[in-house]
Amino acid sequence: MKRVAILASASGSGKTTLGRELARRLDVPFHELDALHHGPGWTEATADELRARVEPLVAEDAWVLDGAYRGKLGDLVLERAELVVWLDLPLRIWLPRLLRRTVTRIVRREELWNGNRERVRSAFFSRDSVIYYALRAHFRHHRSYPASLAPYPVVRLRSPREVATWLESAAK
Length: 172
Known about the structure:
Layout: E1 3-8, H1 15-26, E2 30-32, H2 33-37, H3 47-58, E3 63-66, H4 70-73, H5 76-80, E4 83-87, H6 91-108, H7 120-124, H8 130-148, E5 154-157, H9 160-170
Parallel strand pairs: 1-3, 1-4, 2-3, 4-5
Helix pairs in contact: 6-8
């Protein structure tokens, strides 16, 4: 296993953490697609810009990618992955994680990508809120992923214990 795409039903599920750790254990490059997608001032890459950034990465022999951006990239990432890992954790697990992470980032003024930082107003009180987006995505992905991911080799992990067990076995 040299090319792995990590997807999640929602933000806060741990895909970046899992992706980094898997890449470390496999000794392959890790790429976070959010960092390639979000430019300064939260500007979003166009589909063509994002594709130009991602195509060279997925052409490599080995990688772990966090995300797939199917809305802009189609199945580019999934078609090139040897394995798709779907983190499908329950809301009771990922929502508190997401809330803690968001508050911590705001309080510490942590830079995410390209100078971007989360802010109280945009994180909690806007149409583009990460919380609102995560809730919508969770239910949408929970319904759509079983069929849309069916053509690909998928490991669906539904609990932190399954994630830990899979990570141990995958890295051997």
